[in-house]
## 1
Amino acid sequence: MVLLCVLVGPVGLLGEVHADTVGLYNPAAGNFYLRNSNSAGAADLTFRYGPAPSTWRPVVGDWDGEAVVTIGLYNQSPGNFCLRNTNSAGAADLTFRYGPAASAWLPVAGDWNGDTTVTIGLYNQATGTFYLRNSDSAGSADLTFRFGPAASNWLPIAGDWNGDGTATIGLYNPATGTFYLRNSNTAGAAELAFRYGPASSTWLPVVGDWDRDGDDTVGLYSPTAGTFYLRNTNAAGAADTVFRYGPAPSTWKPIAGDWVHYYDITDYWPVAEGDVWGYEGSSSTHGVFGQVRTVSGTTSIGGREYANVVSDVSWGETWMDFLQTAADGVRHAGSFEAGASPELVTFDPPMLMPNDLPLGRTVSESTTEWDDGVLQGPRIFTVTLTGIETVNVPAGTFPDCLRVELSIATPGVPGADQITLWLAKGVGPVRQYEVNGSFTEEIELTGAIIGGVHYPRVYVHVETNYWESGQYQLRISAEAAPGDVSSIAISGPSYLATATVNKPSGAGSDDPTHLYDDGLHWDGAAGDGHWIVVLDLNATPQVGDTITYDITFGDASSDSKNASIRAVYAQTATLVSPADGATVGSLTPTFQWNDAPSSAITQYQVLIDDPGHNRVFYSPMIAAGTGFYTVPPGSLLGGSTYLWLVNGTDWCGNEVLTNWDTFHTP
């Protein structure tokens, strides 16, 4: 009979040591009962794994290096290990044969080489020999040595007795109630030998870091009484923790480990200069919209540097959030909203989404909000990790996303701002949902570039342009990491075959320099990772028409992606003044127009070219409902002729363009 226990207490992703807790395995039913505290009570995790009834022996460890201990079984009959990477029912993730079949050898497990992954071993009581392996796979032992007497019934254990990050072996002699611990996986005398518990008993040994001090210590389990006796030092003495858990008497086997997975929020929300996220969404106040977030520069708040995460939204607003990836998590120090009435909001201390967060835990902290330096009062910021989910968004499928519930409340005031975030590892927020009273908003990731990595690998997009003359165009684009794509072939509705490539005279962003002759086969070999073509159509595109991109990558792999036409408009803005052919009164004229009838067109831009259609001046984006723009000094020359139009766009880039009108300067 043997107990395998947690061998090296797992360390959190920031170095925080977590306490090991006990569990039980019932071989008659094949059930595991895991508890998240060393106290009496019901199991926190109960599941069946392996056959029932069986003589298989439990073994536990962090098999995949994810800082959580999971279960396994050893079948002595064929000599097979069956290890699982989650504490749940299901098939084994690792199955392999190690050691002789039909033997009485006993399993052990530990991080024998300090690489943070636990691997298996065997102990032969007949010869007093350990056979330890540094990978969870079939093969020969990496370490073989004798420790303890031959032909004994001593039970093998393993743990990090001295806190150096490496597990070493030990033995428990039930006849005398004595532990023999060694600090190296070699033959030799025990460094620690002490009596703990009664002699000549059926009590079983268990090992764990019960007090979170970084080293493992012993414990005992009495099957007769169903009681654990845990000790915080490897020395003789009374138990530090005593509690009943499980039935009495029983044949259940004790185990121990850190069963809880702790998540580091900073792994799921990178914030580095140049990172970009694109979103599409809808809100109760602005309808459907687009948003781009970019990390650009830093701002010093309270003596700390915070990254500026600048958000541009399609209805014309811009703001920035101040974020910092710190040792203890992601900190949000406040925000600044630009515009006609700029506003600076800060939080002291900054709101923290903490690292080392286990599933189901809620963390709350108090902060104080200041608006433009004026005290607004206390706020309670609450964070809860509520789930691990696979999320499908336009940017792709992201498995194992953290679902994080955030709440910002004012003490004594009903209601709160509730935000749900889905965070993908290495990417950041891929979905966000917010509710505050009657206000709701939801966004989903359409594309991102994080640390130079593109999500998706190729981002594809289709926009429609409509000219007042009745001409429709398609603007087809793709973006990837430079050098990643070998070629792209475009196909779709029949009108593509008769379309004409619109080649502007200047070398602007629309210049199809990376295209083959017909505009539908794109050469990526010499490209910068960005392709775009504008096609003049002889037909009217329809909402839902799909463009297919057949992509060949530089590594010879391939993919196919689709982009659909999201909107088609047939009415533009109406130019009001100056009238076509008029002479304006100054070199800073004011242009006026009436918006297009569709409320989906959320912003406008005044474009001014010379008669050869070379760009002279393009205004910034102007919110719908404004209807005028004054050209700043120095933009125009006197005694000259210019062309102007107004271009309206919706949230995803679809455009309606007026015809060009002419004006003259004095």
## 2
Amino acid sequence: MNNCRIFLRLTVVLFFVLSFGSTASAAGVIDLPRTGQTTSHAIGDDGDWQAGVTWPSPRFVSGTGIEANCMIDKLTGLMWPKNGNLAGGTKTWQDALTYSNNLNYCGHTDWRLPNVNELESLVNLEEPDTSAWLNIQGFYSVQSNSYWSSSTHRQHSNNALYVVMLYGDVAFHDKTSSGYANVFPVRSSSAAGVIDLPRTGQTISYATGDDGDWQAGIAWPSPRFVSGTGAEADCMIDTLTGLMWLKNGDLAGVAKTWQDALTYSNNLNYCGHSDWRLPNRKELMSLVNRGESSTATWLWTQGLIYVHGGTYWSSSPEDRWHYAWSVDMHHLNYVLSISKIDYHYVFPVRGGQSAILPPVAPEALKATANSSGKITLAWLDKSVYETGYKVFRKVGAGKFVLLNSLPADTETYVDSTATGNDTTTAYSYYVKACSAAGCSKSTPQAVVPYKPTNLVATKVTNGVNLSWTDNSANEKGFKIYRTEGTCSSMNPLKLIKITAADATTFTGGLAPGTYSYKVRAFTQSVLQPYSYGYSTFSNCVTVTVP
């Protein structure tokens, strides 16, 4: 979600690997969440370790206002419709894409069909029925059968991946089947999640709005895997997740039952470490590259060896006690529960603890001049880690200095010492989120331009001509506002036009009546996400059209 956060975390990993030859305390670009499983059925299983980031409580919260019919997942930051059957039944994969692409709901039009990682993030392995669990979290009509993802099966591209909301299976089915899978659109909300979901690896697009088209999620770092050094030389570190894996995907030598796989992993002493374990379902799934025909073959190209093109055990039991979850690393890439007494491969893992990182930078900074001596700052809080904010200001051509430190969750600040901001002194601002681990990158600068003056309104046939004096040299343009009535009217001003930079006139048609106008200059940062500065308003003028 945040490029600075990604860069910082990848830098941490590579710094430890290259400088110290150890990643015992290194973090990945993302933190994997827990699977939801809290019940332990054996020593070293998922419920015993509960590895990953703790889910927030409550996990889901209802939107408000125009978003009241939607739910926001506080774990991922994703927004979902409350109605799990909003589309009214099953559809073909193409129809599911089209429905999601065209959806206008909860005040938003940027809906899409979720990729397989996003859809799987809803699964709760502690529950015997994820759909029933979701239906008591604030959702309703979530179906227990299959839901389409936007991800195509790479080996069999006439098939798409789906997730079963009963147990949580991930498999694939013919895209043209109209009676097989339901639709659960998703969009990214403005709220920051506790974790960031990674991309699936799929880069080829098979249809508008599919996984390869959107490529939603955090981009994978390059290189994705780096070799350990020294005592860790026979292990690989995944720079995406921070997990350490054996280089040898067949170190155990033979396939094992689930219990034997747990025992082997629990007792492993390798690469100088003895805290190995069998990976949980999400950790094992994180190795899968949905853009490759065979994940096993791809892993060989990343520096791992002897990775089998077959099924590997996870430490996560399935609700039916004698089953456990597994992941196929070859062409199928199924995520299925299988009998614990079957024989499958073992791929121990270690690490994955959450790292203490600087918070995510705030976004959408706006600096609005309210008067010749006061400027109001507003921004979006995008972090869940911050302990406070720091506001920096530059006066004229001077240097940026710390203006004030503010508590966590703050999203506004009023600078009451911005004297002369309308005509004589330029003010620039940026904001950082901070914690004990350091501060985020800065927002792009918000620069307040000088206000336009000498606004004049001249009545023309069936309309009005406005002219003003441009006093700023850095504006992106001007915003023209109008209200019905005279300048003393209490009617609200409405934005009617945004001009280009250096504009000094505007002509518009009007119905008979009395109207008043004001103009303000605005700036836009070069860097994204954009920051904006707004001048005070010009003088107000009134015109009457008979």
## 3
Amino acid sequence: MATVDLSAMGGSTRARWYDATSGNFTKIPGSPFDNKVTHEFTPPGKNNEGESDWVLMLDVGADDITPKAARTPVSGPLRHSSNPNYFEDANGNALILCGSQTWNTLQDWGSNGSIQTLDFNAFVSFLKAHGHNFTLLWSTELPKFHGLPTTDTSSPPDIKVSPFPWKRSGPGLATDGGLKFDLTKFDENYFDRLRERVQSLNSAGIYAGIYLFSGEWLLRFRCATDGYPFSGTNNINGIDDGYKGGSPETQVGAVTMTASNAITDFQDAYVKKTINTLNDLPNVLWIVSQEAPENSTWWNNHLISLGRAYEKKKPYQHPIGYGVPAVYNSQIDTTLYNSDADWIAPLARISPARSCGTGKPACKVNINDSDHSYWEIWNDSPQKNRNYAWENFANGNQVLFMDPYLVYYPRQKRNMCISPVNAICSLPDLRWENFRNNLEYILKYSRRLHLVNLTPGSSLCSTKYCLAQTPSIGAEYLVYAPSGGSFTVDLSAMPNTRMLSVEWFNPATGTTTSQSPIPAGSSSRLFNSPFSGDAVLYLVDTEGHK
């Protein structure tokens, strides 16, 4: 039994028991509870594995959240909508993609030579419990990698990874100690796992971004015993990227070519195999790479072109993405805008209101991934973290959270997850719950808004973060105030004979406050947030948006 004093907490509290062995939540009868007294909570008995371990989850104001939109089921592959900022589903409904992603959701990881199997069903339940509709499945290139800065020491643990797309049948041993790869033979277990996991996400109403490669792992985490399949000592096919240790140039030869060669032949075959495995599933998006070397432009563009041409002959055509190369200057996102990708994951912390360039399509759907744009997010306050998500949403963009989930990352206390064994934990770090919840809040508001008609309008509000449609009848505004307080909004699109409903949302607590309708017409209407900290204001014509 657990006794908790709730008297110092405002509003009401939703109480749930969390079973880490299954990833499922059990609601506690009587929840939400009034925050005026002490409550006693008794665990519901044995968990999914017949043990007595449970986690008590208390969410202040969580049952008060007013955007009550239901989860949107997956309907056909996504395609570009008439609004260049958003995709639409097969029913023509514009939508945004938001969610947590983590590194080991396709391949298993582990230190000390001991690979730890991820409970993927628990991860899907985790995404569902947080209301997320998008995640990424990673494919890291190295069977063993070195130097991921998870600890404060100069020698973080090496991590082993499995499975891989190609059979390890030998003869002979690769540098990581496993059998050499045969690049002419695919390991069907890898592709079966990939398909099963994408199907699980589809059943849960979650879109899956599929990394074809990474690129970053070659640039940053190689070592003499990494077992990389395209190095000559690690395969039986005579394929050699030239890696001999030392300089970065020899580490990345498999992604920095400027014309097709023997390596791209095998890579192309793998990409086609991946497309064949998943093409009939409606929840798929592709992404070629992320933080790959600066001079990987030809390779990325080649794979975008290959994927699009190959899928053109298939039942479904899925959007293809491009993650920012590992170049840290303000101009690098132009490379993404000028590519032929459908969607991008940029470097800019707050993405622009439009992401357009010379490629086809000219304008990209911008899914801002904190993995690239918000390094050391963990050193900032929860409010500053929320600023990042809501400012991007109000600027017409979408957000992915590089959620460390169960990867133990004690450096700077990035992820103090529970009970780590060989670098993998059994429960996530609850410090990230508010940020995870805010991605759901954003999704819920997006489903209330008429997205396809919305444009970012920084000039409409003094906070500079406003999504709006401004017809003379049916206007709506979503305003984000990063620090709350007082601000003005231009409501002159509709005459003062029309009324706007007023709703405040507190991202820190998940609670809403409704106020009396106000007349439209003012070009500088003053608003004062009814609570401290960052605030969301939602205004809509009382007769509904257009």
